[in-house]
Amino acid sequence: MKTLITSAVFCILFSTVSFAQLDKGYWLGNVVGNFGISDKGNFWFVNLNTQSLKLVDKNLAIGLGIDYNYYKSNVKGPQNTGAYRHTYLEIGPVVRKYLGNSRCKPYAELSTGIQMFNSQHLNSEFSYLDEQQYKFFLNPTIGVSWWFNENVSLNLSTGFKTTNFNNIMFDGFRIGVSFKIGKMSSKK
After folding, report:
1. Which of 3, 77, 134, 151 lies 20 to 30 Å from 112 when distance is taken between CA atoms?
2. Where are the domains of the chain?
3. How crowded is residue 145: how many other Cβ atoms within 10 Å of its Cβ?
4. Of 33, 13, 30, which is closest to residue 22 (Cα–Cα)?
5. What is the mean pLDDT of residues 44-51?
6. Around Cβ 111, how many Cβ atoms within 10 Å?
């Protein structure tokens, strides 16, 4: 019985370690989407984040990230009534370091770049305000990737990303999917 249990544990550990070898030369495509609804201020948002990462060394990926966000809020009150719409786009480089060689890989990520922000407001007196801003951002993130097989993983991450729109603060978790796309061809 001990031999059977020991063999089963060894097989499970071996199969877990043998998955998801993130070697130099492969590409990773990462897609994250989220949405939220709040009863305060009749508020909702949609977010789509995509990344294209190249493994430049074992478990180290560098690439480009694009993050699109849309927020909408309807406010009704004695002082201020109207609709607010905020759209922003972030684009910039991303560095991700995976830890370990198992199927479940923790990682740390850092992204930076430029954020383009557009704000629109239509109040009860039909006046329209349009504001555009450009600023730099720095987003540290930690997460874990669970690799189902050699090419597909599910990611759960959290990061420090606080955006202040009309005194509404956002911090949260992200769930996404990664795909290992292929290895670069070697020149002979």
Report:
1. 151
2. 2-182
3. 23
4. 30
5. 87
6. 24
